């Protein structure tokens, strides 16, 4: 699989002939100013929760691509009000079958509200099981013992975990999360975008290495094989 990082918590994964985009927030991120939002391709867009730094470009990209937008039922309903009809509402549970594989909605310890303050439904993480490989996107979350269930559902090839602290797990808790889900290859997200989540990236990589894990921090706009 190929993963492209677009900054903050936004990335895409190529699964077979499908491109799955996550939490599109690009134009509002000054560190991603070089990314052309309108050139981003997506067949599916998965949304972990309704905060502005995760849905900032959701409607724009959904309209451009006609991608199937997947998220909590409340997110799907909100998208409909924005004129986006190609939606699939979900919640914790599953798995749900898609043409590229199956996706299970899992717990994320966070909050979820739209930019106007209205209720955004339950925040979610996602476990993908596909013929191309399996991965876990935690969404915005603190460390939770529920993560231990994920290894029952899937043998993961990689995990995408927040590492910036303050609003989510920090580096140390992300290392514990990697133990819980039994996956030592981690793509770090949700760090350095704003001052409260600034981290020492070299120290973070060293901490993962000391725990015999790999922390991957792609550059914004970088595509990696994973």
UniProtKB/TrEMBL annotation:
A GO molecular-function descriptor: hydrolase activity
InterPro entries on file: Metallo-B-lactamas, RibonucZ/Hydroxyglut_hydro, UPF0173, UPF0173_UPF0282_UlaG_hydrolase
Domain Metallo-beta-lactamase, residue spans: 7-190
UniProt KW Hydrolase keyword: yes
Keywords tagged on the record: Hydrolase
Superkingdom as given in the UniProt entry: Bacteria
SUPFAM superfamilies: Metallo-hydrolase/oxidoreductase (SSF56281)
Keyword rRNA-binding attributed: no
Pfam families: Lactamase_B_2
PANTHER family associated with the record: UPF0173 METAL-DEPENDENT HYDROLASE MJ1163, UPF0173 METAL-DEPENDENT HYDROLASE MJ1163-RELATED
Protein family according to the UniProt entry: Belongs to the UPF0173 family.
Entry protein name: UPF0173 metal-dependent hydrolase SAMN05421788_11244
